[in-house]
Amino acid sequence: TIQGALDYYGEDASIDLGDATWNESLVITNNGVTLYGFGASLDVSGLPNGVTIIADDVTIEGIEIIGDSSTNAGIVIQPPSTNIQIIDCKIHGMSLANPGNDSPLAYGILAYGSDANFTPNELYFEDNEIYDIAGAGISLGAWTANTYISDNTIFDISEVEYLGQPLSVG
What we know:
Strand content: over 45%
Helix content: under 10%
Number of strands: 16
Oligomer: single chain
Low-confidence stretches: none
Mean pLDDT: 96
Distance between the termini: 32 Å
Structural class: mainly beta
C-alpha cells in the first residue's frame, strides 16, 4: 500500500505512484515526503478523506483524487504543517458534509488551524483542477497563514444550504 510505503520509508520519502489506481486513504506524518504519479489515481470512494497531512515539506504532484458521497475532503492540511505543495492534481467527487462540525461543506482542499499559534503555514496550491465538490473547492480556516493559490481551475461546485442560503465557494 502507499501508506505502508510512507510508514516504511519515513522522513524524506519520495514515492512514485506510477500509472495505477490505488484504493486507500493516506495520513502523512513524516516530514519531507513527496508523492507523485502522473496518471496515478487515489480512489477514496467510501472513505471520509483522501490525504491528511500533518507534517512539513510535503509535496503532492500529478495525482487524481476521486471521492464520492462518503468523502468529505480530497486533501486535509492540519496544523502545524509548513511548506505544503499541492501541484497539478485533479480532485473531484467529494460530497459528504463535514462530520467534524455543523458545516454542510465538502472540500477539494481543506486547511485549518486551531488558533494563531497553531496554524498550517506556507501552503502552495498550483495548477490543480478541482470540480464536482459539494460546497467548497478550496477552503482555508480562520487560522491559516501564508497561502499561495495560483492557476487552479475550479468548477462545478454544487450549492449547499448554509444558514438558510445557498452557498458554493471556489
